């Protein structure tokens, strides 16, 4: 898909295509449409990131709360968004043993209790074995720093999803 | 549902219950959860409204773009959210004749072309016969004023949906 096609979309089409660039937050794509035309794929990705930065803190927390747990019950039940399912499966999180799942569930619960949002990680750039260590590490970070880190992961996930949609994997990584 | 129950919800439960107070924008409920505890139903409604006011203009436009057309193809196809279906049907918009539907479709298209978001009206407080006149009137408003008017309708819809959920219709109207 070239950028001319993207720029010619009405907002309904744009949200249909880019509505899950930010997980379960189609309103972000609906907002980014205001910024068209886009110069290229990078410029589009930048506008998604920039919009997240303009949100008040509760809005940024809200975006994080729309994300599923990593290796959580939704992965087990198959109720993840198609993108999350692919990303979490690709990172090997669907093949964890019961003990590893339990360990992650405990860490996820601690993280949610501490920060008030779920642990978000660009799973495709990680692997299942590294996730518990990273979660344990971030669990010890100060809340303000962790909000920034988590929002950075949302942006990375968004860039990867945009690269998939625009067929320009390398350019956006 | 009393306010104590609301205040005891974790963010997942809160979004499950209040996720469509703002049409197809569960992230708004996810953000409002940051403001708990809530004093009462009115306080909760105020926080939904206040959050919408804190959004940058593209975000407010994005919220509007998540709304369906009034008496549009989604009402015909039955793909509206349950709340919108009830509200549009209750206002008599599901019983329009072909001529009236066509007239509204034309006005909706003009409105979208002019403002870049769909015409939003708290349909439950209106009736089908009054909708085309109101749409034609708002179509002539300056864009900045119309954004404020439309956002005011989003807030009214949200208050009515909250009243339904909390079982306190009169208190919130």
Give me the strand/helix succession of chain A.
Answer: HHHHHHHHHHH
| Number of H- or I-type helical stretches of chain A | 11
* CATH secondary-structure class of the domain at 63-153 in chain A: Mainly Alpha
Q: Which fold does the CATH topology of the domain at 63-153 in chain A refer to?
A: UraD-like
Structural class of chain A: mainly alpha
What fraction of the residues of chain A are assigned to beta strands by DSSP? under 5%
Radius of gyration of chain A: 16 Å
Q: Classify the oligomer.
A: homodimer
Instruction: Report low-confidence residues of chain A grouped into runs of 5 or more.
Output: 169-173
Shape of chain A: globular
End-to-end separation of chain A: 17 Å
Average pLDDT of chain A, rounded to a whole number, is 94
Number of strands of chain A: 0
- Biggest interface: chains and residue counts? A-B, 31 and 31 residues
Helical content of chain A stands at 55-70%
Could you explain how this protein is built, in words?
2 copies of one chain form a homodimer. Chain A is mostly helical. Chain A has a domain at 63-153: Oxo-4-hydroxy-4-carboxy-5-ureidoimidazoline decarboxylase (UraD-like, Orthogonal Bundle), CATH 1.10.3330. Chain A is built from 11 helices and no strands. Chain A has helices at 3-7, 11-18, 26-32, 41-54, 57-65, 73-77, 82-90, 98-115, 131-139, 143-166, 169-172. In chain A, helix 4 packs antiparallel against helix 10 (143-166) and helix 8 runs parallel beside helix 9 (131-139). The longest helix of chain A has 24 residues, at 143-166.
């Amino acid at each position: 898909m070239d950028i001319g096609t993207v720029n010619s979309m009405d907002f309904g089409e744009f949200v249909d295509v880019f509505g899950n660039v930010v997980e379960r937050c189609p309103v972000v794509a609906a907002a980014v449409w205001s910024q068209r035309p886009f110069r290229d794929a990078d410029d589009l990705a930048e506008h998604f990131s920039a919009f997240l930065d303009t949100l008040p803190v509760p809005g940024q927390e809200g975006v994080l709360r729309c994300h599923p747990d990593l290796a959580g019950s939704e992965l087990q039940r198959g109720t993840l968004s198609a993108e999350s399912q692919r990303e979490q499966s690709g990172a090997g999180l669907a093949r964890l043993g019961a003990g590893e799942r339990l360990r992650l569930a405990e860490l996820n619960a601690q993280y949610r209790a501490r920060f008030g949002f779920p642990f978000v990680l660009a799973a495709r750039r990680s692997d299942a074995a590294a996730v518990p260590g990273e979660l344990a590490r971030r669990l010890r970070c100060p809340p303000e720093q962790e909000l920034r880190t988590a929002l950075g992961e949302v942006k990375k996930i968004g860039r990867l999803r945009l690269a998939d949609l625009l067929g320009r994997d390398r350019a956006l990584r």
